[in-house]
């Protein structure tokens, strides 16, 4: 586990900034201020942030905002971004419609 | 935006046959097989959708099917990435507002 | 479930090169690519590549792509397009989405060459239609024949930002400025010089403050930043634009490795999260390999060699070639790769403060800050003796691995030597015949032919010209300086085109003799309002 999960770490209070209204997650329209505030709510990892705010869970699945979100969290925690565990990588790596997963036949032979 | 007819390195731009399609009910022209987004841009259309929460305009951002900002309702199917979907004769392309067609939304009172 | 000897994810330069190498050794290879077209970023690259002959120097990216694809197809490699690998598992099983169906495949070995995705930088107004990635601009111009916009501001001065800016000019767009928060231009000086001589201004230590407009980009405000990238008040500059192009770096798309359980490393020098692998691309899971940008952001030339290495290693792993054969192949490929990883911009030299070239000449700081060589720089890099008659003038002042100019001259006027990062030197004992092949061969468009003995009042300058419309013989226009400023009257003496020049026209203009050291570009004079 990374050292960042020490919830007792003192990171100070949330200080509003001029660019808090800047959209970071374009798909879900989550702002920089919301992400920063969420760190002070206790969201110290990228995975928690994703589940709390939905940033990275929209149509593009974090393609655009993942690195930005990680950097904002790292900055708020006052640590280097490379010490933060990035979001979990799980199938499907690209958005896929439910109907496609729904009709998957497990033992289907590939006929091409 | 203007189309490039002749390029100093790539030469003459080769396109499929010219076809018509519908954009929010309006007839537009494009070339068969090119991405819908290209035909729209050539016709001067920059806004593809409005976002769910803030109703802000979005258009092409990455142009390779990754960012999903260019999605529109195409032949009734919402969230279709117009930058990688080939244009077909008679296609019905609609501006998306949230996840429904803007044309239809405008009819309902806000 | 269908089984392949080798599954390759990604049909870009690394993936195709790996497929070719493995197919040559007899493997049954399939390449899955999520895109409609193969070749990765290659088909969007219309500039001539650097390096040496082995690295496909002076060949345009899209032609390299065509060659790779043809060779792979000829060797029986199955390239499946519109086939998205949505998952990869520990036991080398992959899930592929084709159309609206899911398929499972097993590979005895897997090479993942999925490349990289573009980074973003948020600024006020970045969600407005008209803000696009650099890749988007290339896709629109070079694949679909449409201008991304009319007036464009480029954010980012790395090689991508510089190369795409030049391509925008070639497509007929107006690039109003190149902006970068860093104090120095990140990409090659020769790429910057190509756009600087067309008059594109550089704003280093600047960033975008805001972009605004009615439902689309109409205006951009940039401001200066200090060394901690904080905006300095009262330094705003406004531009009327319809497009903002963002070229702020790439990040490896390495999620598949993570999913399969490979050991990962977050390495900023490599661009982000990469699988931990040895120098041949073997990851921590036997039989899973990485090649190309996904293993570390570099360029297409190195991606191709890494692909070949992974292809050879996968072949050996599956018993299709002996360890001895593998060692021999890898030794040659490693040499090729190493020769690319030298010079001022090599990964190993990133972050180092470089003050002189390998030859001991102080580098041009003007080139790094403004994108063009100053008159003092030219004097410092020029030969001390005046050369009579027509002769090449080479304005290549940074050590980068590149040598097509040396091979281009049949009279051997240009010397680089064994170390291809050395600066090219004009051999004054040889006589130039003015053919201009060196001018056309230089991928950085940094070679000119100058003849100061043309007449008592005039000099002739031959320069590379890659724009339309091509100027005509006899046309009168203006010569500009290296920074794109109008210098003097110029008359076009000849415009030579040839298949050998590969779409680089050689424009020879007549300028007043006193301007021979400054005139480096030809600007057409508009004959209408």
> Strand percentage of chain A, roughly?
under 5%
> N-to-C terminal Cα separation of chain A, in Å?
44 Å
Percentage of helical residues of chain A?
Answer: 25-40%
CATH third-level topology of chain A: Arc Repressor Mutant, subunit A
> Domains counted in the coordinates of chain A: how many?
1
Strand order of the largest sheet of chain A: 1-2
**Shape type of chain A:** elongated
Unreliable residue runs of chain A: none
Query: Overall pLDDT of chain C, averaged?
Result: 94
* H-E string of chain A: EEHHHH
Derived from helix and strand composition plus strand pairing, the structural class of chain C reads: alpha/beta
Total strand count of chain A, please? 2
Alpha carbon gyration radius of chain C: 24 Å
Which band does the percent of strand residues of chain C land in? 25-35%
CATH superfamily of chain A: BFD-like [2Fe-2S]-binding domain
Radius of gyration of chain A, Cα only, in angstroms? 17 Å
Largest interface, counted by CB within 8 Å of the partner chain's CB = B-C, 35 and 37 residues
Question: Assembly type of the shown chains?
Answer: heterotrimer
Summarize the structure.
The complex is a heterotrimer of chains A (112), B (110) and C (529). Chain A is mostly helical and 112 residues long. Chain A contains four helices and two strands.
Task: Describe this protein's structure.
The complex is a heterotrimer of chains A (about 110), B (about 110) and C (about 525). Chain A contains four helices and two strands; from the N terminus they run ββαααα. Chain A is mainly alpha-helical. In chain A, α1 (about 30-40) packs across α3 (about 65-75). The longest helix of chain A is centred in the middle third of the chain and has 12 residues, at about 65-75. Chain A starts with about 20 loop residues before the first strand and ends in a 10-residue tail after the last helix. The mean pLDDT of chain A is about 85. Chain B is mainly beta and about 110 residues long. Helices cover about 10% and strands about 35% of the residues of chain B. Chain B is built from two helices and eleven strands; from the N terminus they run ββββαβββββββα. In chain B, the strands form three sheets. Chain B has a five-stranded mixed β-sheet, with helices on one face. Chain B has a four-stranded mixed β-sheet with strand order 6-5-10-11. In chain B, a hairpin with a 2-residue loop joins β7 (about 70-75) and β8 (about 75-80). The longest helix of chain B has 7 residues, at about 35-40. In chain B, about 40% of the residues are buried. Chain C is of the alpha/beta class and about 525 residues long. Chain C has helices at about 15-25, 60-75, 135-145, 160-170, 190-195, 255-260, 300-315, 325-340, 365-370, 375-380, 405-410, 435-440, and strands spanning about 1-10, 30, 80, 85-90, 95-100, 100-110, 115-120, 130-135, 150-155, 175-180, 200-205, 205-210, 220-225, 235-240, 245, 250, 265, 270-275, 290, 390-395, 415, 425, 445-450, 460-465, 475-480, 485-495, 505-510, 520-525. In chain C, the strands form seven sheets. In chain C, strands 1, 2, 3, 4, 5, 6 and 19 form a seven-stranded mixed β-sheet that branches. In chain C, α2 links the parallel β2 and β3 (about 80). The termini of chain C are far apart. The model of chain C has no long low-confidence stretch (mean pLDDT about 95). The interface of B and C includes residues 5 and 35 of B.
């Amino acid at each position: 586990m990374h050292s960042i999960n020490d919830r007792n770490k003192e990171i100070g209070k949330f200080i509003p900034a001029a660019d808090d209204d800047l959209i970071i997650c374009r798909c879900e329209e989550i702002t920089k201020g919301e992400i920063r505030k969420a760190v002070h709510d206790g969201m110290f990892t990228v995975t928690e942030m994703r589940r709390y705010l939905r940033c990275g869970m929209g149509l593009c699945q974090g393609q655009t905002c993942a690195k930005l979100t990680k950097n904002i969290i790292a900055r708020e925690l006052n640590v280097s971004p490379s010490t933060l565990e990035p979001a979990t990588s799980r199938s499907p790596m690209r958005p896929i419609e439910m109907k496609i997963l729904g009709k998957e036949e497990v033992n289907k032979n590939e006929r091409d | 935006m203007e189309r490039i007819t002749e390029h100093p390195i790539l030469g003459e731009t080769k396109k499929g046959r010219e076809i018509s399609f519908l954009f929010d009910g309006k007839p537009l022209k494009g070339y068969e097989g090119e991405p819908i987004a290209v035909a729209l841009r050539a016709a001067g259309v920059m806004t593809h959708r409005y976002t769910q929460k803030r109703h802000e305009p979005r258009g092409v951002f990455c142009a390779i099917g990754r960012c999903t900002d260019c999605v529109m309702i195409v032949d009734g199917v919402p969230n279709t990435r117009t930058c990688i979907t080939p244009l077909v004769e008679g296609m019905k392309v609609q501006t998306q507002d949230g996840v429904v067609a803007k044309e239809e939304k405008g009819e309902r009172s806000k | 479930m269908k089984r392949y000897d080798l599954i390759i994810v990604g049909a870009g330069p690394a993936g195709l090169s790996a497929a070719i190498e493995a197919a040559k050794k007899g493997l049954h290879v399939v390449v899955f690519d999520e895109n409609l077209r193969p070749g990765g970023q290659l088909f969007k690259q219309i500039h001539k590549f650097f390096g040496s002959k082995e690295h496909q120097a002076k060949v345009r990216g899209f032609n390299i792509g065509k060659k790779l694809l043809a060779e792979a197809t000829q060797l029986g490699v199955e390239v499946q397009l519109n086939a998205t690998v949505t998952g990869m598992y520990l036991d080398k099983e992959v899930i592929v989405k084709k159309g609206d169906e899911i398929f499972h495949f097993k590979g005895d070995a897997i090479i993942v060459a999925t490349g990289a995705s573009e980074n973003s930088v948020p600024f006020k107004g970045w969600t407005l239609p008209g803000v696009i990635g650099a890749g988007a601009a290339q896709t629109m111009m070079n694949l679909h024949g449409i201008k991304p916009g009319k007036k464009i501001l480029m954010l980012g001065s790395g090689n991508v930002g510089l190369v795409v800016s030049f391509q925008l000019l070639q497509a007929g767009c107006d690039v109003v400025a190149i902006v970068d928060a860093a104090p120095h231009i990140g990409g090659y000086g020769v790429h910057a010089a190509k756009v600087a001589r067309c008059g594109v201004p550089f704003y280093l230590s600047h960033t975008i403050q805001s972009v605004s407009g009615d439902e689309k980009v109409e205006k951009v405000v940039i401001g200066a930043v200090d060394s901690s990238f904080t905006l300095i008040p009262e330094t705003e500059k406004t531009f009327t634009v319809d497009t903002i192009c963002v070229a702020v770096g790439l990040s490896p798309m390495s999620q598949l490795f993570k999913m399969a359980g490979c050991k990962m490393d977050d390495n900023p020098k490599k661009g982000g999260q990469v699988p931990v692998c040895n120098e041949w691309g073997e990851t921590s899971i036997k039989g899973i390999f990485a090649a190309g940008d996904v293993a570390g952001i570099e360029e297409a030339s190195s991606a191709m060699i890494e692909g070949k290495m992974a292809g050879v290693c996968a072949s050996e792993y599956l018993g299709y070639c002996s360890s001895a054969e593998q060692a021999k192949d890898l030794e040659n490929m490693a040499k090729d790769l190493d020769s690319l990883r030298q010079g001022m911009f090599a990964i190993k030299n990133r972050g180092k403060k470089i003050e002189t070239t390998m030859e001991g000449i102080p580098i041009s700081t003007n080139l790094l800050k403004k994108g063009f060589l100053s008159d003092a720089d030219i004097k410092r890099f020029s030969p001390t003796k005046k050369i009579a008659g027509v002769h090449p003038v080479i304005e290549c002042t940074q050590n980068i691995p590149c040598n097509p100019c040396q091979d281009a001259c049949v009279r051997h006027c240009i010397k680089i030597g064994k170390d291809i990062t050395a600066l090219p030197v004009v051999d004054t004992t040889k006589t130039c015949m003015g053919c201009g092949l060196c001018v056309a061969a230089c991928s950085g468009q940094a070679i000119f032919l100058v003849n100061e003995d043309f007449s008592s009042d005039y000099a002739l300058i031959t320069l590379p010209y890659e724009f339309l419309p091509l100027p005509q013989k006899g046309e009168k226009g203006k010569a500009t300086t290296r920074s794109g400023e109008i210098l003097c009257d110029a008359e076009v003496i000849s415009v030579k085109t040839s298949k050998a020049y590969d779409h680089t026209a050689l424009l020879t203009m007549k300028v007043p003799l006193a301007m021979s050291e400054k005139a480096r570009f030809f600007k057409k004079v508009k004959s209408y309002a």
